Amino acid sequence: MRFGFKATNNESEWEALIAGLTIAKHLEVQKIEDSGDSQLVVGLVNGEYEAREDSMAKYLTHIQSLKSAFQVFRVLKVPRAENTRADQLSKLATAKELKKN
C-alpha cells in the first residue's frame, strides 16, 4: 500500500486495516478475520489497550464504525516473522502501482 503522506508503522497498519475493511464492506462480506503484527493496533482494536494519543483514538473510532458492518470481526496478533506473506503482498501491490506510473 502506498500513501501520499509519511506514515509510521502503526499508521500503516491502521490504514491497511481501514482499506481492507472498506473493501470488504463494499463486497458485503459478513465475516472478517485479520491478522497484524502491531501489538498496539491489535490491542486497541480488541479493547486490550486504551488509546492515549488523539491520532490512535481517531483511527480506533473509524475502525469501530466500520466493524459494525460485519457479523463476525476478529483481529489476531501474529509475530512479525509470521506476517511475511502480508508484507510480501503489500510490497507486490506497491511495485505494481509504481510500474503503472
From TrEMBL:
Instruction: Name it.
Output: RVT_3 domain-containing protein
Superkingdom, natural source = Eukaryota
Fetch the InterPro entries from UniProt.
RNaseH-like_sf, RNaseH_domain, RNaseH_sf
Q: Which PANTHER family match?
A: RIBONUCLEASE H (PTHR48475)
Q: Which GO terms describe its molecular function?
A: nucleic acid binding; RNA-DNA hybrid ribonuclease activity
Q: Which Gene3D superfamilies match?
A: Ribonuclease H-like superfamily/Ribonuclease H
All copies of the RNase H type-1 domain together span 5-93
Organism from which the protein derives: Cephalotus follicularis
Record lineage: Eukaryota, Viridiplantae, Streptophyta, Embryophyta, Tracheophyta
- Matches recorded under SUPFAM superfamilies: Ribonuclease H-like (SSF53098)
